[in-house]
Write a structure and sequence with these properties.
The chain has helices at 11-14, 19-38, 89-102, 119-125, and strands at 2-9, 42-47, 55-58, 65-68, 77-85, 106-113. The protein is α+β, with helices and mostly antiparallel strands. It has one domain: Dimeric alpha+beta barrel (Alpha-Beta Plaits), CATH 3.30.70.1060. This is YCII-related domain-containing protein.
Length: 130
């Protein structure tokens, strides 16, 4: 099953790392990721820019509102994510524990199964053009 592993942390800590600290953390994370990548089970991995770079579209009374920043004030924010294929939730938990052990910036990892939708495949299945 495909899982998303969402990484939450205090962004003030993560974005305050020096280039050397950042490189060290990334090296340790890559070491944890490498076995999954070699097995062809690691999908896209992404790091989000700080919440100060965020834009939120919120449903308004008459029309959607466009706001600067995240939709809520919180100490921990979503900083990035992994997508990976695991045979079980236990494997996803074990991978997340390894990430947690080497990543001083992430306070928690949220694991969720998810489905990928490809709009062009849906159109083709419905008989539409791509």
């Amino acid at each position: 099953m495909l899982y998303a592993i969402l990484c939450y942390a205090h962004e003030e800590t993560v974005f305050a790392w020096s280039k050397e600290e950042e490189a060290s953390v990334m090296e340790r994370l890559h070491a944890v990721q490498e076995p999954l990548a070699k097995a062809g089970k690691l999908g896209p991995v992404g790091r989000l820019m700080p919440t100060t770079a965020a834009t939120t579209v919120r449903k308004g009374k008459d029309e959607p509102l466009v706001l600067d920043g995240p939709f809520a004030e919180t100490k921990e924010v979503l900083l990035g994510f992994y997508t990976a294929e695991f045979d079980s939730l236990d494997e996803a938990v074990a991978f997340s524990k390894e990430l947690s052990a080497v990543n001083p910036g992430s306070s928690s990892y949220e694991i969720r199964p998810f489905y990928v939708f490809h709009p062009n495949e849906i159109k083709a299945a419905e008989g539409g053009s791509s």
